Amino acid sequence: MNAAHALGSFDWRRRNMVQRLAKMGISRADVLAAMGSVPRHVFVEEALRSRAYDDMSLPLGLGQTISQPYTVAVMTQLMLGNETTENFGPVLEIGTGCGYQTAVLQAVGLKQIYSVERLQALHEKAKHNLRTARLLGGTRLVCGDGYLGLPEVAPFNGILVTAAPAEVPLPLLQQLAVGGRMVIPLDEGGQQYLWLIEKTAHGFHETCVHEARFVPLINGT
């Protein structure tokens, strides 16, 4: 297969992926457009690129995975809620991984994105992938302990956690702005669920979204 044919095949598969996401309940036009613009095949291992647009997670090595497209899209949609991206404040992503979720956040139009990855090798891989996809500008990638968040930048209007702790890290709750939304998977005795946590002036409102499957969130580097 020559390079032009391969690229055309990826474009066709990505369009099919977006149509599938719309049928699965992704309703925000900007999220669908972002999913359609980010070349997911750039972010997966070369040997798995033929499966890049299937709705499945794929291994990245180092015990990590790239989330399935639906998970990336639904987490982005939940975090944004009914807000527009033009004036959306800073966003914190915990678990950069290969950089795919980061790329979607940038493609959806968010201007202030901070992403923390504890594994140096993945931190470097994400930088490489985002440069390849020409989506690194405007995003600050940090190698560090995601449990601690980034207090020097807080508060955040949105926080996405792409690995599952047993309970919500207190520093992340403290760094969520009033009116902000956190999307996080929690491991409850071996069963994982995706949660939306909204911070109000009077406390937190928690909504269980659906079952989930993520790698564990490790406390400490």
Automatic annotation (TrEMBL):
Signal peptide: none annotated. InterPro entries: PCMT (IPR000682), SAM-dependent_MTases_sf (IPR029063). It holds the Pfam family PCMT. GO terms for biological process: methylation; protein repair. It is found in: Cytoplasm. GO terms for cellular component: cytoplasm. It comes from the Bacteria. GO terms for molecular function: protein-L-isoaspartate (D-aspartate) O-methyltransferase activity. Its EC number is 2.1.1.77. It is an enzyme of class 2 (transferase). Keywords: Cytoplasm, Methyltransferase, S-adenosyl-L-methionine, Transferase. Belongs to the methyltransferase superfamily. L-isoaspartyl/D-aspartyl protein methyltransferase family. This is Protein-L-isoaspartate O-methyltransferase. It comes from Eikenella corrodens CC92I.
